[in-house]
Amino acid sequence: MQDHPLVPIIMAGGAGTRLWPVSRDTMPKQFIALLDDGMSTFQATLLRFKGAAFGEPIVVTNHEFRFIVAEQMASLGIAGEIVLEPERRDSAAAGAVGALLAADRSPDSICIVVAADHAIADAEAFVKDCLLAATIAADGPIMTIGIEPDCPSTAYGYIERSADVLGERAHGLARFVEKPVREVAERYVAEGYLWNSGNFIFAIGTILEEMERHCPEVLDAARRSVAKAARDLDFLRLDTQEFAKAPKISIDHALMEKTERAGVLAASFDWSDIGAWDAIHDLKVKDENGNRLEGPVAVLGTTNSFLRSEEMLTAAVGLDGVIVVATQDAVLVAAKSEAGRVKDLVADMKRAGRREASEHLRIYRPWGWYQRIDIGDRFQVKHISVKPGGLLSLQRHHHRAEHWVVVHGTAVVTIDGTVSLFHENEAAYLPIGCVHRLHNPGKIDLKLIEIHVGSYTGEDDIVRIEDVYARADSSV
């Protein structure tokens, strides 16, 4: 076994559009508690690597999610490197960046690249398989973990094993194949193919050698973006121009399909990539009619279905095999067998300019969140929640005045240098152009109603003068 702890490289920058409307660009599935354990899959992934066999994780994520990642790691007491991608370039670039950063710690380390949105019930078996694959990878092969199929799924890519035996449950990797049609999937299962889980274990020296050989443009862009990276609070921000030069390609296509040094370990644990709502339904405990009902839901004569509602009563009569997901601003109704096509639907809505395709009503910020209640000509109303200790930027607006009505907790409000304390049922008025700031000094969440009045109430009408989160503009 290697002398150094196994280094987890966790990819947490995806959008998860197949789980719309709960998962959207502003808050994707890996950060949402979708399963029955009450944690996000990102948090569950972190906990699987919380042992002596593993080093501090390297989390590669999009800059828009940096504070969500930091908060969810802190809630578990887990430290690690948070690396910010200026844009999404798929898993090859993210894996290369992680390997280069791990090499800075120790060039002799073994790394494991995993996605943050997978569900694994048996964490102990997962860890044992990782360590077994790492032992094999220390001798040279780039290992992936294959999943024994329990059905001829068309939602996953497949792996064909070669006759070369690399170790216990481990073989050489003959080839990857893309997601097949059902008839082909049935043949793959009958011939002993494995599902491709997208987990990779490798020695740093091996992966860098093979990337230099098979996808040098990915490695070169990763090297330059790391070399020119800058510290931003507790984050490592990759260089924007250099990272953009990396091809948008997966590890599978860029490297694993080309290298002759690939191996696969057949997993001993159950696995799901939670790719769509049908997978969520399959993973959850269901009632005697095969239904999973969450939130204010009522059904009659309905079977084998998943219904979830966040607030409004959602009812179904006489349905079988359907998905119904209701949020505050969108409702999805889909045949369970067609759940994977939600991604295509979201793409169509984005092309049509539908805000709901990408944005939640509730928008998260490092200090808490805000949620729009109403908007009209020359006004907007929001619900704002500021966590204990949360401090908004010192800022001004050019086109709107604001009214803040405290409904829960205590607010410290700064207006043009004057600091005042406001309690429940008290209100502050902020004239157009005033320099202002909001702070929650208490031990409970501060909640208030914010009313914008003016000729323009868009989010980009903001000039940040001072910000503890180092945000320069209206970005997250």
Descriptive report:
- The structure is a single chain.
- This protein has 476 residues and is an alpha/beta fold.
- Helices cover 23% and strands 33% of the residues.
- The strands form seven sheets. It has a six-stranded antiparallel beta sheet with strand order 20-21-22-29-24-27, with no helix packed on it. A five-stranded mixed beta barrel has the order 6-9-7-8-12.
- Helix 3 packs across helix 7 (216-227) and helix 6 crosses helix 7 (216-227).
- The model has no long low-confidence stretch (mean pLDDT 94).
Q: Count of DSSP helices?
A: 11
**Percentage beta strand:** 25-35%
The low-pLDDT segments are none
Radius of gyration: 24 Å
Strand order within the widest beta sheet: 20-21-22-29-24-27
**How much helical structure, as a percent, in the residues?**
10-25%
Distance between the termini: 43 Å
Structural class: alpha/beta
Shape: globular
Average of the residue pLDDT scores: 94
